[in-house]
């Protein structure tokens, strides 16, 4: 049985997500995740096929606290500021280019048409983001583009100083409870760069968060926690590691790593997908497919302009 050998040359970093279906057809699509708040570009070739796995519901819960975009800890009596960081706010922001929103858009682009997705952000308060403030069917390419365009980061971080994980989870629970259907698995992807914090008088969050996670487990909802590490503060997520004692906390060393981490989590939500990120000795991603694999589509994710070359069986 002849194998197809694919070699992909990517600049800076690259991911390949291959979708395996019991179908002899092959579709190739190139999707580029821009390095900031621009929605990923999408090139589609129409294919008529059934959904590869049962549809899913996903609520992405994003940390928008001040440490994501400003130097911290914030100075007393004066507004926060952006890099270059200096006394008394010497720690750099964890995600100054707001790549967490690019990662959420990528998840949307890689989902199946019948999947539903919502995005919630939390800081001092919690709120739905754009058109994805409620669970929305992903739909076709045009619908995805409209949904992705509505996923925009905050423009003012001054009122967003705290890390109210409990408020974000509360919204996720409400969204999933209201939309639960038989035959549709539900997931929460929770991203934070620190420990839960609250303004004076709000009370402690830890007991509330623990109870909320138990509520989700009892409802059959699987939670994927992601910790975004900080260049100076490391990966401060002691509380999440306590409540997820099974070691299921995912770490993103830098904001750029969020694209790969979110993609890896998708392969656990949708087991018909595989993620290939390793390179051969020439620095290219390489993988082999055979007809019995029934590969339905191959998706290449790169920075803008990062796809330097593509070959199949030695030919461009």
Task: Please give a handful of descriptors for the protein shown.
alpha/beta; 5-stranded mixed beta sheet
What does this structure look like?
- With 316 residues, this protein is of the alpha/beta class.
- 21% of the residues lie in helices and 27% in strands.
- It is built from 6 helices and 15 strands.
- It has helices at 99-110, 141-149, 165-179, 206-218, 238-243, 258-269; strands spanning 3-10, 15-20, 27-32, 41-42, 56-63, 116-122, 126-128, 136-137, 185-192, 222-228, 250-252, 273-276, 285-290, 295-302, 307-312.
- Strands 5, 6, 7, 8, 9, 10 and 11 form a 7-stranded mixed sheet that branches. The chain has a 5-stranded mixed sheet with strand order 4-3-14-2-12, with helices on one face. Strands 13-1-15 form a 3-stranded antiparallel sheet, with no helix packed on it.
- Strand 3 (27-32) and strand 4 form a beta hairpin.
- Helix 3 (165-179) runs parallel beside helix 4.
- The longest helix is centred in the middle third of the chain and has 15 residues, at 165-179.
- It is globular, with a radius of gyration of 20 Å.
- Residues 10-14 and 16-51 have low confidence and may be disordered.
């Amino acid at each position: 049985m002849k194998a197809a050998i694919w070699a992909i040359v990517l600049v800076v970093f690259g991911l390949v997500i291959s979708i395996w279906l019991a179908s002899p057809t092959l579709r190739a699509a190139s999707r580029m995740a821009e390095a900031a708040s621009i929605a990923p570009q999408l090139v589609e070739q129409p294919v008529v096929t059934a959904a590869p796995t049962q549809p899913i519901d996903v609520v992405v819960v994003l940390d928008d606290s001040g440490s994501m975009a400003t130097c911290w800890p914030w100075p007393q009596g004066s507004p926060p500021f952006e890099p270059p960081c200096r006394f008394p706010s010497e720690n750099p922001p964890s995600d100054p280019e707001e790549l967490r929103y690019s990662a959420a858009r990528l998840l949307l682009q890689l989902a199946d048409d019948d999947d539903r997705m919502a995005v919630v952000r939390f800081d001092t308060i919690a709120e739905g983001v754009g058109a994805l403030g409620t669970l929305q069917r992903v739909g076709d390419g045009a619908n995805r583009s409209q949904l992705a365009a509505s996923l925009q980061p905050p423009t003012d971080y001054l009122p967003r100083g705290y890390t109210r994980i409990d408020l974000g989870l509360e919204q996720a629970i409400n969204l999933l409870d209201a939309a639960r259907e038989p035959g549709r698995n539900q997931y929460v992807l929770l991203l934070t760069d620190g420990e839960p914090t609250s303004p004076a008088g709000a009370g402690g969050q830890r007991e509330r968060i623990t109870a909320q996670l138990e509520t989700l487990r009892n409802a059959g909802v699987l939670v994927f926690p992601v910790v975004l590490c900080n260049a100076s503060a490391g990966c401060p997520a002691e509380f999440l590691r306590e409540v997820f004692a099974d070691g299921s906390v995912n770490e993103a060393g830098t904001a750029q790593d969020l694209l790969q981490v979110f993609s890896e989590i998708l392969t656990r939500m949708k087991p018909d997908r595989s993620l290939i990120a390793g390179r051969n000795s020439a620095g290219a991603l390489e993988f082999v497919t055979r007809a019995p694999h029934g590969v339905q589509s191959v998706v290449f994710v790169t920075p803008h302009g990062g796809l330097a070359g593509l070959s199949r069986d030695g030919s461009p």
